[in-house]
Amino acid sequence: MNATISLSRRSFIIGVASTAGGLSLGFNVPFIKPALAEGAETAPEINAWVVIRPDDTVVIRIARSEMGQGTLTGLAQLVAEELNCDWSKVTTEYPSPAQNLARDRVWGNFSTGGSRGIRESHEYVRIGGAVAREMLIAAAAAEWGVPASECTAWMGMVTHAASDRATFYGQLAAAAARMTPPANVTLKDPKDWTIAGKPLPRLDTADKLNGSQVYGVDLKLPNMVNAAIRACPYFGGKVASFDAAAVAAMPGVRTVVQVDETAVAVVADTWWRAKTALDALPVVWDEGPNRQVTSASIAAMLEEGLGANDAFIGAKQGDAGAALSAAGRTVTATYAFPYQNHATMEPMNATALYTPERCEVWVPTQNGEASLAAAAEAAGLPVQQCEVHKIHLGGGFGRRGNFQDYVRQAVSIAKQVPGTPVKLMWSREEDMLHGAYHPTTRCRLTGALDADGNLTALHMRISGQSILAAVRPQGMQNGMDPVVFQGLVLSGTEGTLGYTVDNLLVDHAMRNPPIPPGFWRGVNLNQNALYVECFMDELAHAAGVDPLAFRRKLMAKHPKHLAVLEAVAERIGWDTPPAAGVHRGLAQIMGFGSYVAAAAEVSVTDGQLKIHRIVAATDPGHVVNPAQVERQVEGSFVYGLSACIYGECTVNGGRMEQENFDSYEVLRMAEMPEVETIIVPSGGFWGGVGEPTIAVAAPAVLNAIFAATGKRIRTLPLKNHDLS
Amino acid sequence: MARLIINGTPRDIEVDPDTPLLWVIREQIGLTGTKYGCGVAACGACTIHIDGVATRSCVLPVSAVEPDQQITTIEGLSPDSSHPVQQAWLALDVPQCGYCQAGMIMAAAGLLMQNPNPADEDINAEITNICRCGTYNRVRAAIKLAAKAGEATQRG
């Protein structure tokens, strides 16, 4: 069949996307590496991002991980937009971390966290699509002997109008792959987008409706065995001894192994049998140095930090100390934020196959390259002899990024049964006891109000745990953890304070309890928004000013912060009274590059809280898929309100007390409020979506609770408070 | 030895009678759409149907299932994702990570069998599955959409 068809027969082609006004970029295009040397994909790779099969299927390579946040679809939209392909023919695949390494990291960063999936890679993936498009055009032009400049590409087809010719991409792919990539490409102006920017359905829904989506826990490999693990529940403790013989004869048991200093595992034919034997396995723990640590001792440690002299300064303007000392009227409050667990629905897991020459790992991971590094280290093999196969995640929320403990464990077990694939899955209890916990911090805020009720000085003293100090010390700045100040700093593009306070000091007394902290969806923005936004409400109340009006006075120089706040206030009807018994609260913050705000309507009846309605607004600069943004925002309130109402891991005897969802409750359907999402992309920057709105959930609701009850809740979770 | 009828097919399985049905389904039958989430019947990820009734399989010993009872898993809800609940889920693009969704869909399908037109309060009472990504509002909307589709089918 001749794939070249006449233009006159193509009534469906309506035009070519204008690139006028687009962004011209001159740079070295990093897409000239040879095609993948191995793998199932035999269709031509135009470049690292785009493979086109003869049947016109476009395979778009996605370097970031999909864990429900929709990045897979969004990144594919960006590539497809520039490629001018037919969206209905798009499919995706993950390149592997080892391939990335072998090709000088042609796909860039695999890490999927910090709401960075799209905002950090939008440019190079669009370039990938644009370069592939130009190579397809060049191939068609060469075949037809016409100038490339006379050809256009649209809907998966290259057209030469003057000679009335057109060819589908699938027919051009092999020739296009041999073309020299252009040195420059012009990216489209987002206003001209037809695929990106649209609320397209996700590409990964169908398999999630019938049980066919394979998660890490579902993996099946020939001769695979299953492992159940128990690590010492006491932080800092170790395995002292265990009696493998006591369970060796139990049904299905293959072996009992010590995984590392801290953990033992049972390997069996099925996971259930492995777990059953593990439950029966006598283990003696060396409980380590932290048996005296409790939530109370940690609280005392942090309380001391609230008044300590040593502190890292995150934001400073004027002289807050002097202004507060001289002030006629000050307001002080102390807030506290507990440990929380990610509690992904899919427990931690990894499958490993080890031989003395090679180690392969299959794992749901937010950072395939970190998984590869962990696998190589645990295997004791050069990284070139290791491979990681990424699998869709049953939730990540930060737990599956930096921390590759489950990969190291799986490889350690696999080394003890070489040549046999081992699937390690944690029980929920293991998951709850060995988290990378949303760290605990406290904050004492002191503000000065002048006679007119204006905020003239503010000191925020944060005391508490640093994530970076524990997990990424190379990110520290002269001993300071900059992440602690998320949303509170005075400059930069990540998250600035939305208020102008003439005398401002935000500082941090680092107090690191012996509990492993981690990046938890929203990270420190969650704590900081609670502190600053509830305290703004306290100040407004003390000044006798409406909370919105009070904030407005401080936000004149922060128009984007103010715009989202005004948007939620207007939508919830701030200027009109709510229904009888219903009360409102507001909050705003900037984080992960986006400006967000929320307004909540609640009622409290006989001490029972009901959250009726949430209005949320986000300005992420650009929006790649508004439907996905809406879902991320809506979902973020489930995460944020779970934390607000229930989330708390308490420490007793040097270990966590909560072991499952019966003691670590989370928000369920009955409590889920309506969420209306206002998306107001103002352009000119790229902000994240998955995390920032979590941070405004709790303060908006707590401020509404104050309006309803006069009770100022300053410690989470709400379940510990009597609202009656 | 246990005899189970799973998705219409009788299966004879060599199994310890205390083994929870979830693990028989996942590890011995090999149907992995039904998920483990908590092991204490708190999250609903393991929801299946037994004789049409939504049931959490992670705490149900296989010995508690009678040989003539019909066990339906997500894989057997329909041959081609055509069940009204699956269709509503598709129409509203409900899943995010998707891990809890098989349990959600089975719980929703079970609810609609008992109550073809559930009110919000019925949904709140019956759908207590945990979703950490936050699909609850679309789950609710999809249940209502499926109910409407069922109504239309009955009328039509």
TrEMBL record, chain B:
Record's keyword annotation contains Transit peptide: no
Domain 2Fe-2S ferredoxin-type stretches: 1-77
One MF term in the entry's GO annotations: 2 iron, 2 sulfur cluster binding
Class of the enzyme per the UniProt entry, highest EC level: oxidoreductase
Keyword Iron: yes
EC id: 1.3.99.16
Keywords noted in UniProt: 2Fe-2S, Iron, Iron-sulfur, Metal-binding, Oxidoreductase
PANTHER family, per the entry: BLR6218 PROTEIN, OXIDOREDUCTASE WITH IRON-SULFUR SUBUNIT
Name listed for the protein in its UniProt record: Isoquinoline 1-oxidoreductase subunit alpha
Protein's organism: Mesorhizobium prunaredense
